[in-house]
Recover the amino acids of this structure.
């Protein structure tokens, strides 16, 4: 896709008539310009477009180092018309850059400076366009008078000679958009004001220069802001990915740790687990359990204390083989056969503090909350079970 601004040329209606572009025309046109431009040379390039347009019409002497050729009224008008075209493009380009910069929220002061410069150029452009229109109307009137005078001369009925009917040689037009495609070193420097340049064209050129400078600053800031936003988004995404990976690694490590705790007791017979292989809880030094069961009981106790203001009351936890023998001797059928009790595996506790009674608020709270941490009340110990024991709870992970 070409990144040139299509050169509009002169519309019909006279030799010098120039149609000012509507402010609402599509912005894709200047966006294509930006693709071929170097931001650092934008200000110089837009100003140079005025000189390129004028230079092409005047035979090529509009730059520093060349003596300006004498200009006729028609040449001055043509230079003004070319400046109007360049100014129109500058306004549209500035509007597109401003819209882009607004989306990324750059410094408001830069946007305001561009708005002020564009508004001033718009005012000067209105005056210049009116001057161009008046010059075109004057030229058309002169053409009609000239034709009328020729028809009134002697021999008007004869066929016109080739010299009389020949049209002026077409002038070579230089597309101002091509300035944007040059490298910074090749961009020409705009010529200083000369006596042959009228005040309207000079003021228009100065206004274009101001808009070009402001546009370049805004565009550069917008590109820097977009780059910074993209870098921040990438950093945020990376941080999120790192956090997710860390969380996954922690979860896997925790699962491995808990699995190792469970595996570490499998080599011991029921009731024969050494104390060094068991863990305690923070709220009761007498409690001894398998490490993962003890960890979850600590978490359950924190929630229980937040609800009732006291710690869980525990009357029994790990029970050695000798302890199981003594329990059966004193409590009979309430205690399991020695060597088969879940207390002997370090995964059972007997609660007090209200939990030991069916239907209390403490018991109901346990049935609603303890299973989330893998502490459950076995079905045989339910009120309708084979051996109702409200106080007996087991860790089932």
């Amino acid at each position: 896709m070409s990144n040139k601004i299509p050169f509009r040329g002169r519309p019909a209606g006279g030799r010098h008539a120039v149609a000012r572009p509507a402010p609402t025309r599509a912005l894709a046109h200047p966006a294509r310009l930006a693709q071929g431009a170097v931001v650092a040379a934008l200000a110089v390039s837009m100003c140079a477009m005025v000189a390129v347009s004028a230079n092409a019409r005047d035979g090529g002497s509009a730059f520093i180092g060349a003596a300006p050729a004498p200009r006729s009224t028609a040449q001055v008008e043509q230079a003004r018309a070319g400046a109007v075209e360049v100014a129109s493009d500058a306004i549209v380009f500035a509007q597109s850059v401003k819209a882009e910069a607004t989306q990324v929220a750059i410094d408001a002061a830069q946007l305001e400076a561009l708005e002020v410069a564009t508004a001033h150029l718009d005012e000067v452009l209105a005056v210049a366009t009116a001057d161009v229109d008046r010059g075109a109307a004057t030229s058309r009137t002169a053409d009609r008078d000239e034709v009328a005078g020729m028809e009134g001369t002697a021999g008007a009925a004869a066929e016109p000679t080739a010299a009389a009917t020949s049209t002026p040689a077409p002038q070579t037009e230089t597309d101002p958009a091509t300035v944007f495609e040059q490298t910074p070193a090749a961009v020409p420097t705009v010529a200083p004001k000369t006596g042959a340049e009228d005040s309207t064209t000079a003021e228009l050129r100065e206004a274009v220069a101001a808009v070009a400078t402001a546009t370049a600053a805004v565009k550069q800031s917008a590109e820097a802001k977009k780059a910074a936003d993209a870098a921040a988004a990438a950093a945020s995404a990376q941080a999120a990915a790192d956090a997710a990976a860390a969380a996954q690694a922690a979860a896997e490590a925790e699962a491995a740790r808990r699995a190792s705790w469970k595996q570490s007791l499998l080599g011991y017979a029921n009731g024969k687990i050494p104390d060094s292989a068991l863990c305690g809880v923070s709220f009761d030094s007498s409690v001894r359990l398998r490490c993962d069961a003890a960890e979850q009981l600590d978490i359950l106790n924190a929630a229980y204390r937040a609800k009732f203001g006291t710690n869980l009351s525990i009357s029994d936890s790990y029970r050695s083989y000798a302890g199981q023998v003594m329990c059966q001797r004193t409590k009979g059928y309430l205690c399991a056969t020695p060597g088969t009790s879940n207390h002997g595996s370090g995964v059972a506790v007997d609660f007090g503090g209200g939990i030991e009674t069916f239907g209390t608020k403490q018991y109901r709270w346990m049935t609603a909350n303890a299973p989330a941490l893998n502490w459950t009340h076995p079905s045989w110990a339910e009120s309708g079970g084979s051996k109702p024991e409200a106080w007996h709870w087991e860790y089932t992970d």
User: Anything to note?
Assistant: The chain is about 50% helix and 5% strand. Strands lie at 279-281, 284-289, 314-316, 348-351, 375-376, 392-395. Confidence is low (pLDDT under 50) at residues 1-69, 154-196. Residues 74-141+189-266 form one domain.
